Structures are given as structure tokens and as C-alpha cells.
Amino acid sequence: MKKIALSLMTLGLLQSTAALATAPTPVPAAIAEHNGPIRIAVIRNLGSDDNTTQFVAGALQEGKKLGFKISTFLSNGDDAKFQDFVNQAISQKYDGIILSQGRDPYSTALVKKAVDAGIKVAVFDTAVSGEIPGVTVSQQDDASLTELSFGQLVKDFNGKANIVKLWVAGFPPMERRQAAYQTLLKQNPGIKELESIGAVSSDVQGDTANKVGAILAKYPKGKIDAIWGTWDAFSQGAYKALKENGRTEIKLYSIDISNQDLQLMREAGSPWKVSVAVDPKLIGATNVRLIANKIAGEPTPATYDFKAAAIPERCWRPSRER
């Protein structure tokens, strides 16, 4: 078993960065004396988009550092499959479970079932009702994500624009972003929502591109000023539709970030103006550290918020194109 510096787990969690102590503390007994490798199941109710790939990479990388065995399961927005994955992880007696994007009405019962089975649990952007002892509920600061991304749209268009919103109901972060959006919309009556579309599937990008393409056919040039995406997988599909239909006069604003997004923002003539996000790799790694602390008997918070940062196109375009 690899040595685990508690400063890496604890300070890394509090500061959202890994920090090594000058003299690593001994491995906690609960970890050092564990029979075989510690097994963690990472179960995410989304598909294998680039954001998810980085989330999983963060979890795998952190698990490797700690000597843990990480298994990952993606349910592509299929709630029945997600629940089945969780129940399998419980029956297979994993030491820890990380849940991502679990929804109502089933997530709370699943988390309690895992805890009752003696499994350590951390959840990210998952609908959990009330505080469950020993469980950390983490989420992005969705109000600031919305304010920074949608707020930039409002600023760029001086408070007057016709927009299309990319959104889907049911997922906790989407609901929080929608609530913040509605508040901002009331504060900016010059922004008009023409359409709201979205779907979670095994091909979010392709399905969104088709939906946006249909909207572009409905609204000729000059009728849509911007698209606001509440998830970068939606925005990738919108970008594809804008490029394929020659409609890059429509500007794109998004929440979440991935390597693919940055590449699209760098392209010549890209309509993608800004993304606001937390590094998904950091989110995956932090949740593994949370589980490690729980197994080690270290204190962990009941809740943890990841702060957002805006990434404007000018940061990624070659200087000659800015």
C-alpha cells in the first residue's frame, strides 16, 4: 500500500489543490491494515463526453496515488441503470462509492442503503434530501456559474438579445442553474428566450446538434443573437450546428469546460465566446480524497462547494485573432 500524506488529503480538499507536507504522517491504521486494495466505485449518470472523461481521469489519477482500485460506471442518463450500478456496488461490498448526477426521487434512499452497509459515500451534483451522517454532498457553485456565463451574454449584448437556452430538467445542477437564470432573466427584461431545448442521451452532442439545426431553420439570420448552454455537452452540439449551417453570427455562452471545448474556442471564427467552469478533473480527484479521509477516520464536511472561474475566448485565441 502506498503511503498517504494526510496533508495531501486534508489540505488538498480544503484548498482544492494537492499540498504535500514536509514530513508525511503515518498511514492511518484503517488503510494500512486493510485486507487487499481499497475498492472505490465511481458511478456517474451521464455519458462518456469529454467533461466526464476528465472527471473520471481525476478520480483514477488520485486513486492511483493513494493505491486504491477505482472502478467506473456510466449510465448515460438512464436512471434505472444508474440505480442498478449502485445496488451492484453495494452488494459487491465496495469500500467507497462516489455518485455523480443521481436524481430524485431515488438518490437519497440509495445513499442511505450504502451507508447502512458500511460503505463510505461522497456524492457530486446528486439529489440528496437532508444531511446523512458521514456523507459529503459536493456541488459546483451553480449560481456563480450562471451569473458569470449568462451575465457575460447580457453584458455583450447590452441587455437586449433573443436567445436559445440549452437545458434539461431533473438534474440538481440544472435545476439550480435554471433558478439563477430565471432571477437574472427578470432583472434583464431585454433578454428574450425564444426556445429552450435539451436531452440527455448516449449522444448528447449529436442529438443537440440536430435540435439546434431545426431551430436554425425556423429562425433566419438576425432572429437569434446568442445561445446559452447550461452544460458543455449541449454547447458542443450547438457549436456543431452553428458551423454546419453557416450561422456563426450567433454567439455561444456555456457552463462547464473540457479540452474539446477549449479546442473549439480556439478555432478561427469560433462563435464560442465564454465558458464558466470548475476543472472536472479536480472534482473527480477531490471526491476520491473525501472517500480516503472517511476510510482513514479523518473528519470530512457535510457539504463542499467548488468555486467557478470564467474562461473567455481571448485567453485561448492566438493573439493575431483577438
Automatic annotation (TrEMBL):
Predominant place of localization: periplasm
Matching InterPro entries: Bact_Solute-Bind_Prot2 (IPR050555), Peripla_BP_I (IPR028082), SBP_2_dom (IPR025997)
CDD domains the record matches: PBP1_methylthioribose_binding-like (cd06305)
Keyword Signal: yes
Domain Periplasmic binding protein: 40-298
Keywords: Signal
GO molecular function: carbohydrate binding
Signal peptide: 1-21
GO CC term (a single one): outer membrane-bounded periplasmic space
Presence of keyword Iron: no
GO biological process, one term: transmembrane transport
Compartments in which it is found: Periplasm
Membership in a protein family: Belongs to the bacterial solute-binding protein 2 family.
PANTHER family, per the entry: ABC TRANSPORTER PERIPLASMIC-BINDING PROTEIN YPHF (PTHR30036:SF7), D-XYLOSE-BINDING PERIPLASMIC PROTEIN (PTHR30036)
Name of the featured protein: Sugar ABC transporter substrate-binding protein
Source organism (scientific name): Klebsiella pneumoniae
